[in-house]
From TrEMBL:
<dbReference type="GO" id="GO:0051537">
    <property type="term" value="F:2 iron, 2 sulfur cluster binding"/>
</dbReference>
<keyword id="KW-0001">2Fe-2S</keyword>
<dbReference type="Pfam" id="PF09360">
    <property type="entry name" value="zf-CDGSH"/>
</dbReference>
<keyword id="KW-0411">Iron-sulfur</keyword>
<dbReference type="InterPro" id="IPR042216">
    <property type="entry name" value="MitoNEET_CISD"/>
</dbReference>
<dbReference type="GO" id="GO:0005737">
    <property type="term" value="C:cytoplasm"/>
</dbReference>
<keyword id="KW-0408">Iron</keyword>
<keyword id="KW-0479">Metal-binding</keyword>
<protein>
    <submittedName>
        <fullName>CDGSH iron-sulfur domain-containing protein</fullName>
    </submittedName>
</protein>
<feature type="domain" description="Iron-binding zinc finger CDGSH type">
    <location>
        <begin position="21"/>
        <end position="65"/>
    </location>
</feature>
<dbReference type="GO" id="GO:0046872">
    <property type="term" value="F:metal ion binding"/>
</dbReference>
<dbReference type="InterPro" id="IPR018967">
    <property type="entry name" value="FeS-contain_CDGSH-typ"/>
</dbReference>
Amino acid sequence: MSGHDDHPDVILCAGGPMLLRGDHVIEDADGTQHRTVRPISAVCRCGKSASQPWCDGTHKLIPKQRRP
Ligand code: FES
């Protein structure tokens, strides 16, 4: 294995969400499980999304130095 993959399954966006490629199950802090339903799903890392555990773009309203 070369150590590089043109299509990684997990991508951390600077200051934004974690992108997941393919089928996954996300468990939130309450223990509720959420299955991905899209080819690529954006998981909130800033904690401010109104549609947890998914990113709704709210991270863009947070000052850059306080983003994940
Ligand atoms: S990372 Fe986008 S709303 Fe939290």
